[in-house]
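About this split. The held-out portion is used to measure sequence recovery: a designer receives only the structure tokens and must propose an amino acid at every position. Recovery is the fraction of positions where the proposal matches the reference. Here is one held-out target exactly as it appears in the evaluation file.
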């Protein structure tokens, strides 16, 4: 991660060089598990310097119940769309934030005109390293004991939170471009869980957490933005 961050700050893409002009296109960013909006700040900065209007999800730490978290994120997204004259947004989500972004894009096509996920285990949100599973169990135990704002052990049990599990499988509208960026050297998420059929799959060489700071990821996002402009 530190090497990826060091390489990024030395590269012009950190300032949006290589991104097509945004012309005020709204973008909404959702961070991953155990992360907050600050983790995607470098990407947001690069997009703003290229002329995009970015908005963070308002997440300090992504460790809450998915059902409880997605409602305020969706409300914040609605406000971002309204402030941009009703123009639909490009959603970018990393890891668990990408899973949330995929869900919101499916159930609110009136707000979203494009989706990019970074290392997001769309096909199986629990297809992650054992250490992460243990961490989820620890956080879930705290939530079960009553700590507010965090997920509970029920979130990890088969059959629990049935409404959310069903929504993860909702189809995206055919006219919503979806790009899933993944890395075989991810180290946290099983990269095969990122390979959703129907998505445009883009492979990069990146660590999992470092995807938010990886030069190749930034360039892949720039390429996909340029593709959208051409089409």
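Reference sequence for scoring:
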């Amino acid at each position: 991660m530190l090497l990826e961050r060091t390489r990024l700050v030395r590269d012009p893409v950190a300032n949006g060089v290589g991104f097509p002009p945004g012309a005020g296109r709204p973008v909404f960013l959702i961070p991953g598990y155990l992360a907050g909006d600050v983790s995607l700040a470098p990407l947001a900065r690069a997009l703003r310097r290229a002329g995009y209007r970015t908005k963070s999800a308002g997440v300090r730490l992504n460790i809450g119940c998915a059902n409880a978290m997605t409602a305020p994120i969706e409300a914040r997204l609605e406000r971002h769309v309204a402030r941009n004259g009703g123009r639909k947004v490009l959603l970018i989500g990393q890891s668990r934030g990408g899973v949330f972004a995929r869900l919101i894009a499916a159930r609110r096509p009136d707000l979203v005109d494009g989706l990019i996920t970074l290392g997001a285990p769309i096909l199986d949100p629990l297809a992650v390293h054992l250490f992460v599973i243990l961490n989820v169990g620890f956080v879930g135990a705290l939530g079960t004991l009553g700590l507010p704002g965090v997920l509970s052990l029920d979130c990890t049990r088969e059959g629990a939170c049935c409404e959310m599990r069903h929504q993860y499988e909702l189809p995206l509208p055919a006219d919503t471009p979806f790009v899933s960026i993944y890395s075989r050297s991810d180290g946290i998420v099983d990269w095969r869980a990122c390979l959703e059929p129907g998505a445009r799959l883009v492979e990069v060489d990146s660590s999992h957490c470092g995807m938010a700071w990886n030069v190749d990821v930034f360039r892949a996002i720039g390429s996909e933005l340029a593709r959208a402009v051409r089409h």
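Annotator remark: Helices lie at 2-9, 41-49, 66-83, 96-107, 130-144, 162-167, 215-230.
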